[in-house]
Amino acid sequence: MDHSGIEHQKPRLVLTGITKRYPSVVANDGVSLSVRPGEIHAVLGENGAGKSTLMKVIYGVTKPDAGTILWNDQYETIVAPAQARRMGIGMVFQHFSLFETLTVWENIALALDEHVPTAQLAAQITEVSEKYGLPIDPYRLVHSMSVGERQRVEIVRCLLQEPKLLIMDEPTSVLTPQAVLILFKTLRRLASEGCSILYISHKLDEIRALCDTATVLRGGRVSGTAIPRNETNESLARMMIGGELAECHLTPREPKEARLEVEHLSLASPDPFGTSLKDISLTVRSGEILGIAGVSGNGQKELMTALSGERLSTPGSMIKLLGQPVGDLNPAKRRALGLTFVPEERLGRGAVPPMSLAFNALLTGARKGMVLKGIIHPAVMRTFSKTVIDRFKVKCGDEQSVASSLSGGNLQKYIVGRETMLQPKMMIVAQPTWGVDVGAAQLIRQALIDLRDQGVALLVISEELDELFSISDRIAVLAQGRLSPSVRPAETSIEQIGTWMSGKFGDQASDSSASARSQLEAAYAQA
Amino acid sequence: MLRLERRATPSSTMRIASPVLAALGMLVTGFLLFSALGKDPVEAFYLFFVKPLSNSYGIGELLLKTTPLLLCGLGLALGFRANVWNIGAEGQLTMGAIAGGGVALWFGDSDSSWAMPLMLLAGVLGGMAWAAIPAFLRTRFNTNEILVTLMLVYISQLVLSWLVHGPWRDPQGQNYPQSQGFGDAETMSVLIDGTRVTWGIVYAVGLALVAWIFSQKTFAGFRMQVAGLAPAAAAYAGFSEKRNIWIALMLCGATAGLAGICEVAGPIGRLQQQISPGYGFAAIIVAWIGRLHPIGVVFGALLMSLLYLGGEAAQMGMGLPSAITGLFQGLLLFYLLAADLFITFRLKRAGVPERPAPKAATTLENAV
């Protein structure tokens, strides 16, 4: 696409000196940015760098403490999203706001500021969605749609208002790699029609492939601007984190005995819109990391609670830990056998927010001498807690700091550290680096690899494919409650995993049934 | 304009200051109320809050009424910390009184030294049995313990009413709905001569210390607190929710049952239709005023006891209606809940975003 024309146009949006302070943090500190018509502008930064706050300021959700917004050469004070929409600003949020029990057109009608007759609205939805290569059926119920399809509804909802500026907040975190390509096509088409796009992300490859310009945020300030096409991942990362990206090294090693065996696990979800687990089989051995990829909402939560024991499954033999059936054992009994667990939700599940880090060590570490005859031993608890803080470089006051005062990344380091130091035989980790800054993510990944090298069996569930490719011995995909066969990262590709993520992995529901079938076929051939 | 803003971390100062502010708010409102009723507020205050404490008998009465409030408040506070919303301490108190009183009546005029220990034990077990009903229904059928415990209050009172009207009525009692008076061996001895205060207050204060140790130092207490602060974390760590609910309700059943038997074996001396002026309900406020902390509950119980005494004095001395006690209790809780908002929030002047001078706009335009 030729963007030389863009350079001479007046900017559509100019932000100058936007500052937003929260009680504990300055989210935006004098941020300036300008976007021209037809420009795809990346806002790049780590989690917590202030990207989302800045977008909320533009969309009228948050009022800045200082700074100005210039929109088409007019100063504006945007006080509400409705006003932003009238001005021609649309936003697609990372977390969707759709009613699952309603149809597509009903959801869209709810967001419109004026009344449009059903048939006319449905026709508009069909027309717009097809024009931009995002076909959706206006009469479908939202709960029957995949996450990618739901995102289309959100995008089409914005497009119906013919926006001059579209804000996309981390849009690809819920998409398969194939769906990402379709989305990029749509965005390029929109830009060619003169729509400005603000694209928020921390994925460097995507930004280099899609965006014309980039503003990089670090710690609430602009740390640089760039033409992404002329940059490398390394140079962008330097602007984003102020340092170099480190690499993980996974030295090949032979896994030993099976630690976790799941056989034909089927479990109906208690939530009517949840995902039921269907015939899941997997094995994790000592000294290996099994990565489970997939878009959130495909049964990850259900699989986690089934493995942790927060939901029981009968017969108990569907889940075996160290050879022992545990499906009908509660989390405490499974922990006693050597299972530890890092949940996706840190505050409130992995840690008790108003309690000190020391007491949060006691949460799962009672067996490590912190409790004798029912009485708490504070000294043991504190020593354990201090060791975790030291070894995992947790930034905090001391072990008496309350968990909720830590940043997400530091709390995650503490939780991973705690579960690691309980000397597990089997460890399950969900979204290990979700919302964690790059430096901390590196430390956490290395800690997982070190555990593997010590002979621990690990199961890692993550949405980040890059992460799974760099730390897994084998990768499987969870899609629509079913688990794909597992493959070595070297023997597969992002494309194949992407295809699996959309639920297409044929009839090979599990390793065992596939090998059984091929043995059968071989037997028939011989006959 | 003022607006509320969430604090970065909850204020520990406000957590302590809030009950004090609530008591002040109650006093100021009471002052205005007495003035509006045409009573001299200074005299009313003296009668309400000072006179009851001006002699040793009054101090004794204060401690006497503190006993059931403290016992029930302790049990409730431990449960509330674990998110178990038992509001039926009044019913558990009544059942404790019935069970313990039944033992007393069975001993009759005997002077067995077994009578008092067995009565206390029966009182504790009676309260626990009554609390076991909501515990079972909640853990087995997931019923709401708020409703079940409340409804069981009325059932227990009707059971007591039936007993003192029917099988346990004193044949020589001129048809009054009350049992025979308990014998000497079945009556708790007075702690301080010249007052009515019994050994019950000693048990109550001792239990406050035990409850403090339980909640601060034991793993079971820690588990209950985690369940209250972050239920998902408790499930994640493998703490049994059912066990928590059972422990919380059994503890409160035991303390409330003890409160019940201490009342009928102490100042009342028999079973009768009414044995508590709502101690079990007032103890809910006591638990909150005491910040759900066993030592705080001691102070909460003393304050609430004073409100009962002052209310009685105001009725007798100034002819104010008996509703005055409930009114002050309500004011206290009302102001406490209001002040508690400022533990997690603070008031802030709403800021106006800075706007640049119009001149800046033109320069920017030129620059572009």
Q: What integer is the average pLDDT of chain A? A: 84
Largest interface, C-beta within 8 A: A-B, 50 and 32 residues
Count of DSSP strands of chain B? 2
Spans of chain B with pLDDT under 50 lasting ≥5 residues?
352-368
Number of helices of chain A: 17
The CATH topology of the domain at 255-332 and 425-527 in chain A turns out to be: Rossmann fold
- Estimate the strand proportion of chain A: 15-25%
* CA gyration radius of chain B, whole angstroms: 25 Å
- Indicate the structural class of chain B: mainly alpha
Question: Kindly, what is the distance between the CA atoms of the first and last residues of chain A, rounded to a whole number of angstroms?
Answer: 60 Å
CA(first)-CA(last) distance of chain B: 37 Å
The best one-word shape of chain B is globular
Could you give a short account of the major beta sheet of chain A? Answer: 6 strands, mixed
Question: How does this model look, in words?
Answer:
- The complex is a heterodimer of chains A (527) and B (368).
- Among the domains of chain A are: 181 residues, 3-Layer(aba) Sandwich (Rossmann fold); 85 residues, Rossmann fold (3-Layer(aba) Sandwich), CATH 3.40.50.300.
- Helix content of chain A is 35%, strand content 22%.
- In chain A, a hairpin with a 2-residue loop joins strand 17 and strand 18.
- In chain A, helix 11 crosses helix 12, helix 12 packs across helix 13 and helix 13 packs parallel to helix 14.
- Chain A is globular.
- Chain B has 368 residues and is mainly alpha-helical.
- In chain B, helix 4 runs parallel beside helix 6 and helix 12 packs antiparallel against helix 13.
- At the A-B interface, strand 4, helix 10, helix 11 and strand 18 of A face helix 8, helix 9 and helix 14 of B.
